[in-house]
Amino acid sequence: MNSTPAKVRKDIIQRPKGTQDICGEDVERWEYVESLCRLQLQSAGYQEIRTPIFEATELFERGVGEGTDIVNKEMYTFEKSDRRLSLRPEGTAGVVRAFVEQGMGRWPKPVKLYYLGPMFRYERPQAGRQRQFHQFGVELFGLDTPAADAEVILMAMRMFEKLALPNLSLQINNIGTVECRERFKTGFKALLAPQLTQLCADCQTRYQTNPLRMLDCKQDSCKAIYAQPTVKAFLETDFTSEDCQAHFAELVRILDALKVPYQRNPYLVRGLDYYTKTVFEITSTNLGAQNAVCGGGRYNRLVEDLGGPETPAVGWALGMERLLTLVGDLPKRTLDFYIVHDQPAEAFQVAEALRASGYHVEVDLSGKGFGKQFERAAKLNARQAITIGEAEVQNGTIRVKHLHSGEQQATTLTDLLSQLAPAKQP
Ligand code: ATP
Ligand code: MG
User: Fold this and answer.
1) DSSP 231-282
2) Which of 148, 227, 326, 364 is the most exposed place for a label (fewest CB within 10 A)?
3) Nearest residue CA, atom 25 of ligand 1?
């Protein structure tokens, strides 16, 4: 064996561009927010779904839509045994694939799911935009009711209220069905035909393939054209069917009754092809240029398009990184007890009994003197230290010290546990 290990190249110990290590205090914030999101959804009967991080590339081509930025430019695609696979750029396509493959169409309706995990998009890294980022998402399958739309929106808004997110705005719009959009296309194209050459190349392509998506353009010059009063007035005249309009009116009525503030935004179309009727986005002015924290909508055709039974659905996804930048100070996890000892077996027994009652306990593992162990307890900001030495083991006691007040008492484990009641939930 070579005794001098080869020098490690610097780029090997650098994380890839656009990715993040989540550790230290950050990871506590992540865990707090993740569990709050989970509890919110679980308390309304949503169940987690975990799907693979890679899927057939074609699933995303069909599910997200050819011609979208995600599919055209942003996917990490690789080939194995003649199969093209891609790292998932978003969660819905995989969840819908699982819905079809697992026969969830036969489950009692509605099927209410949530997911949480990393997504991958080859984008230019910048504030609020990473190549590996995390989404928390919700999908509700099997119902085409305004109440279903209202519930998923409510889930997101209530979560954000609990997290006290600042300067939020919920924007909603009704983009109708494919048939409604045919009517929209004709009028919209006629209106913009004279200015076609002034639009960016992408919008000129969208003009031919999917004019609605022109409204999602991020170029200022295009945005200025779409902001003209004539275009604005056209967008404000509802081009959707009576059924779509009634659906939207009922959604708005429910939101009003629940005092969920929203703005109707006729420019909101969302970048993906699969939406029908309701679309929405939750933004915060505290986020800067990448201001969307959550986006979603109804997609009544996607399950069928991916080979499943006709199944209406509605859902959303939020970006965890952007959400976390909006969350202020969170309660810190406290260390209830630090066990100072030279009797490992007894120390672990006491720790296990306290942990079983829901307390957060650390046992000293250093084997150093009691003085050093108390220093460590103070560094960790433990509330109380329990000392277990030879004398304590012999007479069956423990010594408990409140580290903030300095107050001390000798007691037994049984007495300590009964004093501590009511115990915290584990
Ligand atoms: P944007 O307009 O910001 O590009 P998007 O329409 O591409 O957003 P969605 O596909 O709707 O985003 O994803 C839902 C959420 O995921 C976004 O609202 C955002 O919070 C987050 N998100 C999307 N792309 C990224 C990224 N590259 N880095 C971090 N978060 C992201
Ligand atoms: Mg994007």
Assistant:
1) HHHHHHS--S-HHHHHHHHHHHHHHHHTT---EE-TT---S-TT--SEEEEE
2) 227
3) 129
